[in-house]
Amino acid sequence: MNDRGSAVISALAGITLTTTVTLTTLALGLSAINVLVIRDAAIDSAQQAALAKSSSKNEYLLRLIQKRVPSMVSVRVVEIADEAVTGYRVEGQLPGLGFLSGLANVSVEVSAANEAIL
Question: Is a pLDDT exceeding 90 seen at residue 6?
Answer without folding.
Answer: no
